[in-house]
């Protein structure tokens, strides 16, 4: 390896890396700003303009777009005719390319970014060199990630960069340029009509671009998908926001399955919604026990009471560090869980779980972060929407003669929070920071109401004095009658039905308190 070309926008670590290359006898070529920085640090550097015979021009739009650069990158060293062409035209080979591109993402994230600014931040020469070098990966190593600098130096000190490393770098490059172009496409196709006539303005943008590009990185292949005859793999975003499930650290247990991950996400999203110690137990993507308490132990014991039968083999999530006392209780209850999730699993809790080798333990930092967009696959298409991450929009309105007491209001708000994480139609009975009955995923709200009360009875729980949340309005009074017959004394739902008055009259007639939220929380 004799010659390296360095051309970076983000100059972090570049001086040290260039020093290390120089110390290994590698000649340094570089573009304007990068070359200047290297020279300031006493490194002998040849400017690209010296070898092209052209100054960098057009405000940097043309720097490296020249046969002396691209010939040096693209010539196959094992093709005599390629090498002869280089010799004929006096072109030297370039063996190592170190690049990062104009920061389009950072530029367009700024509130005052005009269309002109955005366009100027589209790198042209960089991707061209990246693609050239990556295409010729057998002869040229191309490094875009500063975290790879150390590996490059280590391999240079050995037998030279391996084919595996160079091919890995080439794959990384094409994924990177695909993501870079995807980002540009998302930006440009989100501009509102007429942006092209006002390039000096900050352009108005549609929420959803006309072409949507998304890049995901494979985390793991899976033994199977939702069912054993389905294949599956798990992918995640390049940058997972702190607090989202995909940022998990697995402490113990077998590999997570497709259903484990889907259910873990449901449990984690629900438990994160609470700001006091909380426990959520999920089965088949629905909470079958949710509770808050003064301690996690109390929250766990309450959550388990809702539906101990369904809780067996479920996914359990906590929003506070999980300590040994809770794990010991889980073990004493012979409560088998597939996955346990918490922001921290203390060494004592890990020790208490150590003998249950099949239980997957995940740590995920707690935060209020949610996915910016929610996706749902349909045949030949994809639905995109923003996250359903509001508890209540607007004011809660008491619509009955009877207003809820302070305690009832607390129970109603708890039930409403839980209801957001229950598949529609959702009916949730709650009291004292705990779910008493969960009716999920029924085609009729009436059936969800009936199922919730049947399940509560099966768990030996009385629904007397409970608060009920319904994820959408009661279209008729019948659903309301079912929950009041079961023992509920207050109800929260969005309202907005044609027959609101019929339902309000029914609530008054039955002597319960009812509030409207004005917000619906369907979940499919
Ligand atoms: N136009 C070109 O020929 C060209 N060649 C390299 N660049 C980019 O220029 C940047 C480095 O510039 P400088 O070394 O002048 O700070 C890199 O992000 C590199 O990707 C170019 N700039 C943009 O297209």
From TrEMBL:
PROSITE patterns: MGS
Xref: InterPro entries: AICAR_Tfase_dup_dom_sf, Cytidine_deaminase-like, MGS-like_dom, MGS-like_dom_sf, PurH-like
GO molecular function: IMP cyclohydrolase activity; phosphoribosylaminoimidazolecarboxamide formyltransferase activity
Biological process terms in GO annotation: 'de novo' IMP biosynthetic process
Keyword Electron transport: no
Pfam families recorded: AICARFT_IMPCHas (PF01808), MGS (PF02142)
Record-listed E.C. numbers: 2.1.2.3, 3.5.4.10
Catalytic activity: (6R)-10-formyltetrahydrofolate + 5-amino-1-(5-phospho-beta-D-ribosyl)imidazole-4-carboxamide = 5-formamido-1-(5-phospho-D-ribosyl)imidazole-4-carboxamide + (6S)-5,6,7,8-tetrahydrofolate; IMP + H2O = 5-formamido-1-(5-phospho-D-ribosyl)imidazole-4-carboxamide
Biological pathway: Purine metabolism; IMP biosynthesis via de novo pathway; IMP from 5-formamido-1-(5-phospho-D-ribosyl)imidazole-4-carboxamide: step 1/1; Purine metabolism; IMP biosynthesis via de novo pathway; 5-formamido-1-(5-phospho-D-ribosyl)imidazole-4-carboxamide from 5-amino-1-(5-phospho-D-ribosyl)imidazole-4-carboxamide (10-formyl THF route): step 1/1
Single GO cellular component term: cytosol
Domain MGS-like: 1-144
Keyword Ubl conjugation appears in the UniProt entry: no
Keywords, alphabetical: Hydrolase, Multifunctional enzyme, Purine biosynthesis, Transferase
HAMAP family (alphabetical): PurH
Family: Belongs to the PurH family.
Free-text comment on this protein's domains from its UniProt entry: The IMP cyclohydrolase activity resides in the N-terminal region.
Name listed for the protein in its UniProt record: Bifunctional purine biosynthesis protein PurH
Organism of this sequence: Sphaerotilus natans subsp. natans DSM 6575
Primary gene name: purH
